[in-house]
What we know:
This protein is mainly β. It is 12% helix and 45% strand.
Amino acid sequence: MENIYSLLKTEQKKLAKVSFFDKGITIFHEGEKCQYVGIILKGEIDISSFTSSGTVILYNHLTKGEIFGNNLLFSDTPFYRGDVITRSQCQISFIKK
Length: 97
């Protein structure tokens, strides 16, 4: 299965930064300004929040080939609505606005 990153030309890939994360790492925190589109090259992430009573609200579960941040990057309120947390070891390509 191809992902968006594999479709980029060599010069376009130079604009992307590939990062590796262990399981359970918070990549971005709720309320943090979104400055990148993330493309999951390997692994899984969750985007979730906690209520005041401690209940977890899962907004999205993303896997290899999926993207996140694209809807926030160009919005009037470009702030994460939940924490972005790795569910497994991940390799993610970040492309800055």
